[in-house]
Amino acid sequence: MQSQIWSVPGAPVEGYVWPAAHARGAVLLAHGFGEYAGRYVERYHALIPTLVGAGFTVYAYDQRGHGRSGGRRAVVDLTQLVEDHLKAREALRSLSGPLFLLGHSMGGLVTAASVARDPRGVAGVVLTSPALLVGKNERPWLKRLAPVVARVAPGLKTTALPTGGLSRLAEEVSAYEADETMYHGHVPALTGASMLRLSESLWPHYARWRVPTLVLHGSEDQLTDPRGSQRFAEAIASPDKTLHLVQGGYHELLNDEPREDIRRRIVEWLQARVPQEGQS
């Protein structure tokens, strides 16, 4: 499935759009750490083609330091990624239909921060395995040291991400490891420290969150903490919120055993929040 070029004014990123023939709405997709937007076409149970087939035009971009976008590989400041996301949303503000946001893992944190800062124009949010609770088990002295290390050596390798924790399907793990467009190294110091700082700063703001929200997380996720999704679902004030905790699920739910159910839940949730013809 071929994409068209889409540019995000003011953001140094490579953007893409997959238009739906008869669009009922649009989805802005934010990929996770080490990934790139095009991975959601062939992998993730063909999420982008599925959304397009369901009537949603999909917009996405490779975040700084990822995919075809410039920057040192995976060395990013999450505050800049949030600014890029807000600019992408601004570029889509003139769309006639509803705009939904979908963020996975690190992209889930970026999406949550973007909405917490400015919820205007967002019809709904879908977060899959979002990195909302970072460093919960880290020692306090190490968390205090993280910003210093990030300033002195932003590219220093820190946490290793176990690929075996991505999926229970061996072929999906092998495809991840063989994908040369992916970043396969440790989490750089700047990325980890800014992710920690951003995730901690957002908790006081979630009480004002009233946007319709669907959160999906695997109970056995080893890369992002499912307790963060549970705490988030309890914290937000939205009258329309759903947390689906997948028992036994790993990090990439759309590449894991329950992928048919996860994809169906996402599509049905989005479709249920599109105004019918004649309704405002």
Describe what is shown at a glance.
By secondary structure, the chain is α/β, with parallel strands linked by helices. The protein has 9 helices and 8 strands.
Can you offer a commentary on this structure?
The protein is of the alpha/beta class and 280 residues long. The chain has one domain (4-272): Rossmann fold (3-Layer(aba) Sandwich). Helix content is 35%, strand content 16%. The protein has nine helices and eight strands. It has helices at residues 39-42, 47-53, 78-91, 106-117, 140-152, 170-178, 189-202, 226-235, 259-272, and strands at residues 4-6, 14-18, 25-30, 56-62, 99-104, 124-128, 213-218, 241-246. The protein has an eight-stranded mixed beta sheet, sandwiched between helices. α8 links the parallel β7 (213-218) and β8. α3 crosses α4 and α4 crosses α7 (189-202). It is globular, with a radius of gyration of 18 Å. It starts with a strand and ends in an 8-residue tail after the last helix.
Percent strand: 15-25%
CATH class: Alpha Beta
Number of domains: 1
What average pLDDT do the residues reach?
Answer: 93
Structural class: alpha/beta
In CATH terms, the superfamily is Alpha/Beta hydrolase fold, catalytic domain
Distance between the ends? 32 Å
- The residue fraction in helices comes out at 25-40%
Strand order of the largest sheet: 1-2-4-3-5-6-7-8
Rg of Cα set = 18 Å
CATH topology: Rossmann fold
Put simply, the count of helices is 9
Order of helices and strands: EEEHHEHEHEHHHEHEH
CATH architecture identity: 3-Layer(aba) Sandwich
- Main beta sheet: 8 strands, mixed
DSSP strand tally: 8
Large-scale geometry: globular
Low-confidence stretches: none
